[in-house]
């Protein structure tokens, strides 16, 4: 794993950002503490200076001189300055050479550059100074070096180093560690996906069992892969069936044409061979047409054509269309409607579905039988039922009947491409309706029911 | 408002019909083998056929000369079929167009007709089906100004929705009436089952049962009283012709 990969990883970036913000906050805190301390210390020094000046300036001449020399005696580190000046500005006692420049004589502490007091002091050094006029007309000045405050900075910075640098290093290290861990899992996912893309559809993303976000993501990706694999297998099954069902009429046509070329005698015999071969090709074409139709319905684009459709109206129209066909097949086609049943759907498609069911029923019901078209409620939802008195469909075959391309073995002799029910299935799925298949209550016969989704009772 | 072009086209159609001149067809199809078969079939039916495989070329030819009909594949090199129609229509060339396509899906069909095509036939097709569509497009259905349609012994009142054969009232259901009207407007023309399903029933699927034949059979029994000449003839493997007895 390249270090750059680690540095680019999200956990690492997060850790660095985290460390940086901790550093910033800590720094701010320290600056604030330092500033507050300085303010506090300055105020304390100012108070002392003011008090001292007030006390000394209240004394008489002799006491004053004693106080000044006492001050000077205790001032081993030259941090305090005192000066007693005569009214003409002459220094009478103290360690100040002259009155500090720019210092107002008002008994209040001021910030004064040390250069004005001590020529050898560094240029940046400052002192706090108080000057007060004496009753004699002279001036008393007391000042204190506040360089000592700068020394506060040292321990503060040290504390900062001790606190911050390990914290930063710790975040950095944690970042690298987390990144490497995440990257190694991502790498495994990458490799697995590579394998899946190369066609190994059984592969699944590994799960560690920590139930963290990686595991949950892996779980949902795996569920998606399961679904894709299932669909692909289904498509493959359908593809095999398509190939088989298309090959059957093509094989017949081919055989007829070949035999016709070799053994037909005379033009009329050849023509009849060609005619039957063309019929086989037409069968293959009708299969492909029906498949395209199913594909078109299943893409679901046609939901745009949805509106309010009365199932009773559809049943009436289909019955009207198939009445003569039923008579031709010596069947009774009956219609039982108990009022309007409006559902949301595509009228043309629903008509196509019901017509397919009736077409199918008419085809499979032997002469003398009955095809019954019913519109009413079933399981609390509007439904259209198509019943016939044909051979019925064995329970074992029902599931398969609705699948593409399936045709119960018993009906192989009946003409048709066997895709009618698949089209019905596609239309029903598009509507999110249900297609149910059962036996007739008495006698043999199949019952197909298209059950709509129950609609909430209309207002008013 | 009829445009000048439209008048010219109608006039050309009238002149052609009057003179008995063969109709000219521009066939635009890029599959060489299908194009040859279609051309030979149409020529054998007495049409004059010109063929090109390219969409751009088709547009240039259609702009330069008058044709009675265009047969146009949807997927063409150069310029696709629907664009050819749109550009032609934009220039007021009103030649009827029969769109051919390997895409049989209903939505594609709708798109083809919306673009300005007059009919749509999906590949593969039977030559008889193609011939019937071509004939139907060349001979536009009979339009009458009055509300009564007279064809041979039949008389149809389009307002009252009643029909008579030589004064004998025919008891027709609404759908049968529509079917008869469709046939009467196209006398002597081959009408295929697909045409009836599409145009009369607006049906978009092919029934496995002999739905169309059954309905035609019913209509036939109502039209022809015993001893009367049959008006609807079946053409084996193709469809029906409404023929007026001489």
Description of the structure:
Chain A is α+β, with helices and mostly antiparallel strands and 460 residues long. Chain A folds into 3 domains: 3-150, Beta-Lactamase; 213-298; 303-451, Histidine kinase-like ATPase, C-terminal domain (Heat Shock Protein 90). Chain A is built from 10 helices and 12 strands. Chain A has helices spanning 3-8, 10-57, 61-74, 147-197, 213-263, 266-298, 311-328, 347-364, 395-401, 420-431; strands spanning 80-85, 91-94, 110-113, 126-133, 139-145, 307-310, 332-337, 342-345, 370-378, 381-388, 434-439, 446-451. In chain A, strand 11 (434-439) and strand 12 (446-451) form a beta hairpin. In chain A, helix 6 packs parallel to helix 10 (420-431) and helix 7 packs parallel to helix 8. The two termini of chain A are 70 Å apart. Chain B is of the alpha/beta class. Chain B is built from 9 helices and 12 strands. Chain B has helices at 4-19, 32-44, 55-64, 81-90, 106-114, 127-138, 174-184, 193-199, 211-223; strands at 24-28, 48-52, 69-73, 97-101, 119-122, 148-151, 154-157, 162-165, 168-170, 190-192, 232-235, 239-242. Chain B has a 5-stranded parallel β-sheet, with helices on both faces. Chain B has a 4-stranded antiparallel β-sheet with strand order 6-7-8-9, covered by helices on one side. Chain B has a 3-stranded antiparallel β-sheet with strand order 10-12-11. In chain B, a hairpin with a 3-residue loop joins strand 11 (232-235) and strand 12 (239-242). Chain B starts with a helix and ends with a strand. The model of chain B is unreliable at 1-9 (pLDDT under 50). Chains A and B meet through helix 6, helix 7 and helix 8 of A and helix 9 of B.
Report how far the terminal alpha carbons of chain A are from each other: 70 Å
- Into which percentage range does the β-strand content of chain A fall? 15-25%
What's the CATH class label of the largest domain in chain A?
A: Alpha Beta
Overall morphology of chain A:
rod-shaped
**Helix count from the secondary structure assignment of chain B:** 9
Count of folded domains of chain B: 2
Oligomeric organization of the protein chains: heterodimer
Which fold name is given in CATH as the topology of the largest domain in chain A?
Heat Shock Protein 90
User: Which CATH-level-2 architecture of the largest domain in chain A?
Assistant: 2-Layer Sandwich
**Mind summarizing the main beta sheet of chain A?**
5 strands, antiparallel
| Tally of DSSP helical segments of chain A | 10
């Amino acid at each position: 794993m390249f270090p750059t990969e680690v540095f680019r990883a999200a956990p690492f970036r997060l850790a660095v950002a985290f460390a940086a913000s901790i550093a910033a906050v800590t720094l701010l805190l320290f600056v604030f503490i330092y500033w507050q301390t300085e303010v506090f210390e300055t105020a304390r020094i100012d108070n002392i200076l003011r008090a001292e000046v007030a006390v000394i300036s209240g004394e008489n001449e002799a006491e004053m001189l004693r106080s000044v020399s006492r001050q000077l005696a205790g001032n081993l580190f030259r941090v305090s300055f005192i000066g007693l000046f005569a009214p003409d500005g002459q220094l009478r006692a103290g360690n100040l050479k002259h009155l500090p420049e720019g210092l107002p004589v008002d008994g209040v502490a001021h910030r004064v550059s040390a250069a004005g007091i001590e020529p050898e002091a560094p240029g940046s050094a400052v002192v706090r100074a108080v000057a007060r006029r004496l009753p004699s007309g002279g001036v008393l000045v007391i000042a204190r070096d506040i360089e000592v405050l700068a020394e506060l900075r040292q321990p503060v910075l040290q504390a900062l180093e001790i606190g911050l640098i390990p914290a930063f290093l710790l975040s950095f290290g944690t970042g690298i560690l987390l990144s490497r861990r995440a990257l190694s899992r991502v790498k495994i996912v990458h490799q697995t996906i590579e394998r899946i893309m190369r066609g190994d559809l059984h592969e699944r993303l590994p799960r560690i069992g920590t139930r963290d976000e990686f595991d949950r993501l892996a779980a949902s990706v795996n569920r998606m892969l399961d679904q894709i694999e299932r669909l692909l297998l289904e498509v493959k099954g359908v593809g095999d069936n398509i190939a088989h069902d298309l090959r059957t009429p093509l094989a017949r046509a081919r055989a007829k044409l070949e035999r016709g070329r070799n053994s037909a005698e005379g033009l009329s015999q050849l023509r009849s061979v060609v005619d039957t071969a063309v019929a086989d090709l037409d069968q293959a074409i009708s299969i492909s047409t029906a498949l395209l139709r199913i594909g078109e319905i299943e893409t679901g684009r046609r939901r745009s054509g949805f509106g309010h459709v009365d199932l009773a109206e559809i049943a009436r129209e289909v019955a009207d269309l198939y009445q003569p066909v039923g008579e031709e097949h010596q069947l009774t086609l009956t219609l039982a409607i108990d009022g309007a049943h409006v559902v949301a759907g595509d009228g043309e498609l629903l008509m196509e579905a019901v017509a397919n069911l009736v077409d199918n029923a008419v085809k499979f019901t032997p002469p003398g039988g009955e095809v019954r078209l019913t519109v009413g409620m079933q399981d609390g939802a509007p439904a259209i039922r198509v019943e016939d008195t044909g051979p019925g469909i064995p329970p074992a075959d029902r599931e398969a009947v609705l699948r593409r391309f399936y045709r119960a073995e018993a009906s192989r002799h009946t003409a048709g491409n066997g895709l009618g029910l698949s089209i019905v299935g596609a239309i029903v799925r598009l509507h999110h309706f249900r297609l149910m298949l059962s036996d007739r209550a008495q006698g043999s016969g199949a019952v197909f029911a298209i059950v709509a989704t129950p609609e909430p009772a209309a207002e008013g | 408002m009829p445009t000048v072009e439209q008048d010219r086209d109608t006039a050309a159609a009238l002149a052609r019909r009057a003179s008995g001149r063969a109709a000219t067809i521009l066939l635009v199809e890029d599959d060489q083998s299908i194009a040859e078969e279609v051309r030979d079939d149409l020529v054998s039916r007495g049409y004059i056929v010109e063929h090109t495989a390219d969409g751009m070329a088709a547009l240039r030819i259609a702009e330069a000369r008058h044709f009675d009909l265009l047969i146009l594949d949807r997927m063409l090199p150069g310029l696709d079929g629907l664009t050819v129609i749109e550009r032609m229509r934009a220039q007021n060339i009103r030649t009827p167009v029969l769109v051919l396509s390997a895409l049989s899906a209903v939505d594609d069909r709708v798109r083809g007709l919306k673009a300005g095509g007059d009919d749509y036939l999906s590949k593969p097709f039977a030559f008889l089906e193609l011939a019937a569509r071509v004939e139907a497009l060349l001979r536009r259905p009979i339009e009458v100004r009055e509300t009564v349609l007279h064809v041979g012994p039949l008389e149809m009142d389009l307002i009252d929705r009643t029909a008579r054969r030589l004064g004998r009232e025919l008891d027709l259901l609404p759908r049968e009436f529509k079917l008869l009207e469709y046939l009467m407007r196209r006398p002597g023309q081959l009408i295929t089952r697909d045409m009836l399903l599409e145009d009369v029933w607006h049906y978009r699927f092919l029934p496995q049962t002999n739905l169309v034949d059954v309905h035609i059979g019913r209509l036939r029994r109502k039209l022809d009283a015993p001893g009367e000449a049959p008006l609807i003839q079946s053409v084996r493997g193709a469809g029906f012709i409404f023929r007026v007895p001489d």
